[in-house]
Design a protein that fits this description.
Elements lengths: L1 H16 L7 H17 L3 H29 L13 H33 L8
Helix pairs in contact: 3-4
Length: 127
Amino acid sequence: TQQKQQQITEEDFFQDGLDIEGDSLLMRFTLVFLTYASAMIVPQLRLLIALGGAITGSMTSLIIPPLLALKFVSWKEDGSSSKGWSWWSMWYGGLISVGLVYAYIGTAASIRDIIEVYTGSGEDGSL
């Protein structure tokens, strides 16, 4: 009886684990397929790490923090929303712009490196 109770509990656990909001079979398939496709297209791990770092590095350091700060700057202490641009808003907008430029430059350089390695147009075809 205890084994049967344990099996029911495990089945319930796995059944509940599949009911995550926003989860779907199509999303899982797409993520796995994109991971597989990127590994087949760029089998050298250091090139993928450089590409991922170019995107996520600028996002986590120069884009997401100012976006969060802009959310908090737009509300005054009394709870009312402030209209117009303050100096802080312009500063955060500048940081976001710099982050987008760095993300673009880093991503373009990483993609150029990937193309150079596989076309052999680099000095010796390797990094």
